[in-house]
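Researcher: Before we compare anything, I want clean individual predictions. No alignment, no superposition, just each chain on its own. First chain goes here; please echo the sequence and then give the structure tokens.
Model: Echoing the first chain and its structure:
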Amino acid sequence: MMHALRSLLLICVVLVSVAAAEEPYPTRPVTIINPFPPGGIADLTARPLGAVLERVLKQPVVVVNKAGAAGAVGMQSAAVAKPDGYTLLVAVVSISIIPEVDALFGRKPAYTRDQLVGIARLNADPPILVVNADMPWKTLKELVEDAKKRPGELIYSSSGVYGASHVPMEMFLHAAGLRMRHLPTTGGGPATTAVLGGHAQLWTSPPGVAATHLKAGKLRGLATLGATRLANFPEIPTMKELGYDVEYYLWTGLFAPKNMPAHVLKVLRDATRQAVQDPDFKNAMEKIQTPIAYQDADEFREWWDRDAGLLAGVIKRIGKIETK
């Protein structure tokens, strides 16, 4: 009898512990940190995603911009947040680059990839090398020929030193044997503004950021950095077609601090899967000419590991760039 009572008590304790561990989620607003200024691909993806997640989760979902240090400020903020599902992060490929740069300089990392768990990959597009439409170059060949005649004179902008658009530009310059000046900014929006305003002549832009300006004739696309041409811009050749062995993708993913309760992660995975299929999110992505390239957490983790490994090699080749 006593043994039976002990067993019953143990079962009750276990059930109470499980119930406590699986508290209802969500019961209050969820914050998505965007580590870049408004106007870039992270922002253009996060806001429509948040709007749909709000309906799915039945709680407010607020996108907060925490820009700085090419995204490191916002990414670190998310990495050290309480892993309760109420602080998420939308990030681009630079989430893999920043820890490699910290290692390159021998400094304490702002965060590590192991501090974060990927909920889903949302899109993955090769950038487009765009130039101000007032520039004389109609083809990549013309740009390369001109740049070789005056090394160090042309200026390209980016989302920041070692950022998601700096790395592919350095890959191209290395492949083409060119030297240009670098104008780092704080995100995709400011980088585009620099080219439109004549402060820089070119940059490797996410298709979604460049789409409106390409269609308006303010920017001209000379090449894409994917393995194949973009469906929305079939007239723009790839770098590989033009003889440069350069392939690079700008992707956007949704992340959370690691060690989240399993049931919370499941809610977020299911909600995100539902959100990317929602017509409102699909329309928002179509509007910025950015196809959805969804991967759930498990598939995304494997892809992220491979991509990060490739980028680590590129960072080592670029080497140290001292900034003021």
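Researcher: Okay. Second chain, same rules.
Model: Second chain and its structure:
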Amino acid sequence: MSRGGGEEFVVVPEGWLSRGEAFVSGQGRQLAVFGGIPGERARVRIVERGGPQEKARWAGPAGAPSPDRVEPPCDRWAPCGRCPLMHLSDDGRDRARLDVLRAAFAEARAPRPERFDVHSGAATDSTHALELVAGWSDERQPRLGVRGRDARRVVPIPKCLVVTPILRSVMSVVAHHMRALDVHPWVNGKGSFRGMVARQSSVTGEVALTLVYGRSTPFARALSDAIVAQQTGISGVFAHWNEHPGPLIAASEDTGEPEVSALFGQTWREERVEGLRLRLGALDPFPEHVEQGIAAWKAVIDGLEPDEGDAVVDLGAGIGARAMLLAERSGWALGIDPRAGVLRRAKENVSTSGRAVELVHAELAEGLAAANERLEGRRPLVVAEPGPRGLDGPLADAMLALNPRRVALVCNNPKALARDVGRFAAHGYRLARLDAFDTAPWTMFGDSVAILISVDERPPERRAPRRRTVRG
């Protein structure tokens, strides 16, 4: 790729890309337009050339602006790039997400849902998690922010509208003490400080702060102490060591999960869901947009319609909350997850809940295959949240082998979801409904829940198994 030199052209974008840009096709290449809107005639400035996709930025209307266009409320919108749909009205964002989902289903030749709903939540002050990286400014001053849209520099976002006010305060305090203590950013193997991850409890409002280092440094404890002395509301501070290039948080080669060391305070944070009291580790998964994330869980439960005596399976159970909510209605649920540490804490939460939930540590397909004998003939209700790549072949085959009555697929990748819906449709499942949730405000990356119902209406031959440990 080469930089574009700032040439301007007039284009009319044809549609949306899954990352949130509008696109123009032509001459074997695709032009991705940050800030563009399909159907709007506009001036665009080329920022990157070469390869099958070139990049441009919206520079102004070349005619009547789209009725969906609004002025982005953030002055870092363009260099940050994390909120690519901030130039759209609320209705415009909903239409954009629907367009991307419809295009993905059309491309995969997957069936249209009988019911299709978009659920929007508050965008401002709504996100309870924040991840920042450390880097150098052009003046060689340490800074803390996000990797910018051009991926070449760190962009500070001290007034970020998406995260909660407390997280904005924590961000500013960490950045201040990073500079005051002369803590050098870890860049290309030099320096020490890589960044931070902060997660705020939606119940207590307290923050679990993880400071990430690329190498051992005496500053770890000093930085933690300085932050805690100034910032109220921090329940715990942790250190995570990651010397490998790539993602800020890395899994241990021994355990397969990120490991942390406690520097201050308690080692867990609290969340509550529909009467469940949960304790989570510093980096345990939980919906960042809590309201919308829990709404997606409820859509799964309502779509599966569990009744007393039904066997329920949760693939990608995580902290176990969804499995516990399902078990409350069915009387029994089996949760499978490959993350040992997360599952240990899920078991602790289940043990205090009184819910009949069995949790198995295993790769999803292997764990489901190991439970096949117990589930045979029970026609279970199955929810699967395998990640952005969707279901792999072995997992989909293991699910279909159980002849489930209903299936809920949860995914934030429209193309993967459409492919998996098509796979189940080919085996006699109709897509009853599709719900898209705004779990990542001002982006395309919301969670979608697809409910599939078998055309085989025969009831289960056996009810849910008795509760005992299933070994994967």
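Researcher: What stands out in the second chain?
Model: The longest strand covers residues 53-61. Additionally, The radius of gyration is 24 Å.
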